[in-house]
Structures are given as structure tokens and as C-alpha cells.
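FYI - complex with glutamine, inputs then prediction.
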Amino acid sequence: TQHLLGRAQAHAHLGSFLHLDPEAALSTARAADAARAAGQAGPLTGVPLAHKDIFVTADMPTTAGSKMLAHYRSPFDATVVARLKAAGTVSLGKLNCDEYAMGSANENSAYGPVHNPWDTQRVPGGSSGGSAAAVAARLLPAATGTDTGGSIRQPASFSGITGIKPTYGVCSRYGMIAFASSLDQAGPMARSAEDCALLLSAMSGFDERDATSAERPAQNFHAQMLSAREGATASQPLKGLRVGLPQEFFPAALAADVNGAVRHALAELEKLGATLVEVSLPRTELSIPVYYIIAPAEASSNLSRFDGVKFGHRAGQFDDLLDMYKKTRAEGFGAEVKRRIMIGTYVLSHGYYDAYYLQAQKLRRMIAEDFQRCFTQCDVIAGPVAPTVAWKIGEQGGDPLQAYLADIFTLPASLAGLPGMSVPAGFGAGGLPVGLQLIGNYFAEGQLLHTAHALQ
Ligand code: GLN
């Protein structure tokens, strides 16, 4: 903990930490030492980590990357935070992210961008960019992230680390500041599938305080990751595993370096005994408009609570209540958040609801059905995480559409609520990391982790 606190301070230029609490971290670490000395240590006792600043914490500030919550402090811990604390982990602080997790590059944080440690001119991906950069720069062995439409998988890919977004409902959303409630899901980001398995076991499980939490017994994902497949051999641990490659995930426009790295990783899976089969997810392209209707619709509702009354920022001067709301929200929210609130309010408004929101909901169900058809032909689905390697900070010139389009390979699994992960596949142009995406059927996290572990 002491060593990593020093590293975090020495790498402040990366912008990954929004809050560092050395005193609290050291005292928790000492308690972990005592637990270990008393023979009461678990696999995560004393493991340093930090949380994406979208999880509320009682002992540290929580900003969600927004000016709106600049001096906000929650009276309680998010369930994910509380569970990792109970497992003995040591939290060093809070990690930078896109404002309310809206973004793909961590360029939308009110507290400045995060720099990719592989090339500090480039983005680390987003919205869990602080988490990805901190793990990639070895400031932490692990961090929490959240994924609504790719925010664990894409920054893991851009930063050369491993991350898993479990099935919707596996991790409690209690205390995770809501962006799009039907999509938001927490997950671990770490150096390996094995570390992710240990973290996910601790942070997941039913929570009666989240109505969308899956009612399942606690899972030991580490044991699931290690358990051998039927018919597996020492040299072919993935023997018999059918890996589906959706043709839509390999379009002609896919960057050659990304394609090369992904194909290389797929060849490795074959060497490990897996067979590759071609499958189809015909509505892959439609996942972009569907997501960018549903996510903003839910965001416009979720963010209505930031009105200057209940918590967070309040405008200093105003005429009446309506003026206070307007000024508070105009000052507190950044451009991307305002754009989403406007899109969301529009698609939900009378006269447009049927044309946009309802259509999107119908397509969302068809996207989920497409996956189920695929899973009759294969056990896991594989493909790229993103169409390119990490881009340069500012390169998109503030054009939000470019970022939206780059979400094409992560949005389908999010809309279907399926587990997805990113594992390092290799390197693309400029020596930048490229991730392989693995998507499993509902609650098949163990199989995803097993596959990723074999590859690592
Ligand atoms: N890039 C997507 C968006 O901007 C996904 C973000 C996320 O998963 N939180 O909405």
C-alpha cells in the first residue's frame, strides 16, 4: 500500500486519481496485516485497489466526474464497495471517469482527461478510464469499473488490461450513481482473468437493496475459472469449446492492426483446442441507435434528481425555484451530459415515444434473441472490443457521433444483458494494446474467465 501510494503520487500526471487518501489506506492496510498475522486472511486481504468515482463512499468524496457533485459526500457505501471492504481490500481512493459514465475516452470528466500510460498523448478509453490507466500503469493491481455500453471492456482493451462486465444483475447497483439503470453493471478491472475472478466473487451476489439484483447463491468464480472442461487435456484445455465469430464483428472497415491482433488471439484459442465457427448477429449496427435512444432516455430520468435541492451543486444566485433549477443544471452538467438529457427527454416525449423509444425497446429484444440463436451454434462469442486502438486526446474534435460509432462491438452484449470481457490480444499500430472481446450466455462468467485464463 505504501509503495503504491508513492507510485500514485509520482504518476499524478496520468490524471487517474480524483482522490487519494493515504492515511485511511495505511490504517486499513495495518488492519489487514493484523488479520493476516492472526490467521484470518482471505485471498483479498490487504490487496490495494481503488474505486471508480461513480460508486458512493462514506469515507471519501464521490463526484461521478461531475462538477454537480464537486463537494458531495455520501452517507453510505455502495454495496460493491462495502463487499470489497469486507473482503479485506484496501481502498487507496477514487478514480477518474467520464461525467456520469457518459463517454468512451474519459475526455468528458469535469476534472480533466486521463492519459493512457502506453502513450500519454492518447486516451485510456472510457468511461472507466481512471481505473484502466491506474491498473495499466501499475499504480494498482485492480480497480472497480462500471459498464453500461462498454465502459469496462473498451478501456481494458485500450489500456492492455483485463476486465469483465458480468451478466446484468450479478453485481448490485445499490450506491452506483445511475446512468442507464437497465444497462449499468459493475465489474472488476485487473491484470489477469484470475485476479478478476477473485474480485468478482467478492463484489457480486444478491442484494435486497437493488430490485434488479439476480437472486442466485454466491458464486466462486475463481473455482469456476479453474475447473477443467469435460474432455480437456493438459495441452488442450479448451478442447471442444465452440467459439462463435459474428461476421458483423469483422467488417471490411475494421482497422487492420486490430483485426490482426484479434485473429492472432483466435488462432491461440484454436491451439488450445477451441473450434471457431462463423455466426451472425444481424442487428449489430442497429445496436448503436437503439443504445443511444434507451441510455439517454433512462439518463434523462435518473439525472432529474440533480436539481440543486437534494444534494450536490446549487447555483449561488437565482430569482425563483425554476430559475434555481435552470442555473444549477446549466452550471453543474457538462456538454455531453446535457446532450444526453436533451436526447432522452425528446425520445420520451409525447408523440415521439412510439417512434423512437418503443421501437428501440422492440429492437433491443430482437438483439437479445439474435444472441440466443448464436448460442445454439457456439459456447462463447469472440471478436474485437473496439474498431481501433486508443485515439489521441482531442482527436475527435468534440464530435460525439464518432465516439458513439466506436461503441459498435460492445453495445450488443450490453443491450442483451450478457456478460462480456476484454482480454489482451496483442498490439496494434504504435505498439498500442488491442483487446479480444469474449461474450458468454447469461451467468456464464465462469466459462468466460476459464477461456480467458487459458489464453493468458
Ligand atoms: N461509451 C458509451 C456511452 O458513452 C458507454 C459508456 C458506459 O458504458 N458507461 O454511453
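The pocket of glutamine is lined by residues 101-104, 127, 147-151, 179, 295, 407 (CB under 6 Å). The domain at 2-225 is CATH 3.90.1300.10 (Amidase signature (AS) enzymes).
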